[in-house]
Design a protein that fits this description.
The complex is a heterodimer of chains A (about 200) and B (about 220). Chain A contains eight helices and four strands, in the order E-E-H-H-H-H-E-H-H-H-H-E. Chain A has a two-stranded antiparallel ribbon with strand order 1-2. Chain A has a two-stranded antiparallel ribbon with strand order 3-4. In chain A, helix 1 (about 10-30) runs antiparallel to helix 2 and helix 3 (about 60-75) crosses helix 7 (about 145-150). Chain A is mainly alpha-helical. Chain B is mostly helical and about 220 residues long. Chain B contains ten helices and no strands. The N and C termini of chain B lie far apart (about 110 Å). Classes of the chains: A mainly alpha (about 200), B mainly alpha (about 220). The interface between A and B is medium-sized, with 35 and 25 residues.
């Protein structure tokens, strides 16, 4: 299969093999807007073919593609809608890498009887960066080191945001603040935590 | 447990939205067309704008006489270096000359010349009026253009035409006589060939004499 112009180290078949994962990631970055996701993937491929995005081989191709798609989707979203609340805090959070991390208070196996809607609402309360990390860790099983490459930030930043995201999720699910319009006060109706 | 819930959550979201095929995203299929369309839109707008400007300019320059389509006569009037008309004058004239060109008849040249000279709005010189009359009168037999004017002067019809001019100009308002020496000089200046003009002059004078003697010719 022919290589792609300036990106001579990428072949069309490689892109094809990663396409589904890339597109699903684009869907997530586009807040599940199908047209926007398709645009993001198209423009990503175009950047690759035209050489405006160059794969230097410092990470896996998939990781690099995820990074390009994320930035492209962000470019497309900018102006179409306001970034979700919390995104504006990302910059400050990224700069604050020296802050001591909170204690580990969250373990995936700790939760039982968690209501899916409550989880979704809780996820929506996270900052954009935190949600993206949760998605990549929980859904894509991507290591934090790779996520750092996708976001082009230090692994310390990713680790810190990941822990904050989990703590925030735990807090929201316990307190029931992610209860949406109905309030869902007393979140223990939906969540029971196993402290064992 | 929570991870499973999140997985299920995103699985459901992905299931609701079909994946786009690789072909529909990769350049050479969908992408280039999208890019082309994005480029085509401003290009089309720019082309449309230029077209509108061109049409407006066309109507501004040519529209008064023919509603936008320039006739051969109009073009000849504009091209004629001898006449030295502005585009606006040429267009106005072409409009006024249309009836004469469309239906030439006996005595037309004389009437036309008189009309041209009478029309103070046009502010034509005597020589311009004469030349225009000849242009219209000889239109059907001589494709007159700037490059053909020297040949046109050699046409014997010009002699006839000049005779007509002489005959009618004597009686035209504001024109007491047609100064052949002036006309000759003017034509020589225009075409740079005295020999070409002299023959015409001679022919014209002869015709003038005959015309006066016969009471006018066409």
């Amino acid at each position: 299969m022919a290589s792609l112009g300036r990106n001579s180290n990428i072949t069309e078949s490689e892109l094809r093999s990663l396409h589904q994962e890339v597109f699903r990631w684009a869907l997530y970055c586009a807040d599940f807007n199908h047209d926007l996701a398709k645009d993001a993937v198209q423009q990503t491929y175009l950047k690759i073919v035209e050489g405006t995005a160059y794969f230097g081989g410092k990470s896996s191709l998939k990781t690099w593609l995820f990074g390009v798609v994320r930035l492209t989707a962000r470019e497309l979203r900018r102006g179409q809608e306001r970034y979700v609340a919390g995104a504006t805090h990302d910059t400050d959070e990224l700069l604050d890498e020296t802050e001591e991390l909170p204690d580990e208070t969250f373990a995936e196996s700790d939760w039982e009887y968690v209501d899916a809607e409550a989880v979704e609402r809780a996820l929506n309360e996270l900052s954009l960066l935190q949600r993206e990390i949760v998605y990549l860790v929980f859904y894509r099983d991507m290591p934090l080191s790779e996520i750092a490459l996708v976001f082009d930030v230090s692994i310390g930043t990713v680790r810190k945001q990941y822990h904050r995201a989990k703590a925030r999720l735990a807090g929201l699910l316990e307190s029931g603040e992610a209860g949406g319009k109905d309030g869902n006060k007393g979140g223990m109706m939906n969540v029971a935590r196993n402290y064992s | 447990m929570l991870q499973e819930i999140i997985r299920d959550l995103y699985d459901r979201k992905h299931e609701q939205l079909p994946d786009a095929s690789f072909e529909s995203c990769f350049p050479g299929t969908g992408v280039k067309s999208v890019r082309a369309e994005r480029r085509f839109i401003p290009f089309t707008l720019a082309a449309s704008l230029l077209l509108v400007i061109a049409v407006l300019l066309l109507f501004q320059d040519y529209g008064s006489a023919t509603g936008g389509q320039m006739t051969a006569l109009q073009q000849a009037l504009r091209d004629s270096e001898v006449l030295g008309l502005s585009p606006g004058q040429a267009d106005t004239l072409a409009h006024q000359l249309e009836p004469f060109e469309a239906a030439p008849d006996t005595g037309m040249k004389g009437r036309l010349l008189a009309r041209l000279l009478d029309n103070r709005d046009l502010s034509l010189s005597n020589m311009q009026a004469v030349a225009i009359t000849g242009l219209v009168g000889n239109w059907n037999t001589s494709e007159v253009s700037a490059s053909d004017e020297a040949d046109w002067l050699n046409d014997v019809q010009l002699g006839t035409f000049m005779a007509d001019c002489s005959t009618y100009c004597h009686g035209a308002a504001g024109i007491e006589s047609l100064d052949y020496s002036y006309l000759s000089g003017y034509l020589v200046d225009c075409f740079g060939s005295r020999s070409a003009v002299s023959g015409v002059m001679k022919c014209g004078l002869e015709n003038t004499s005959r015309g006066v003697r016969d009471g006018g010719v066409n």
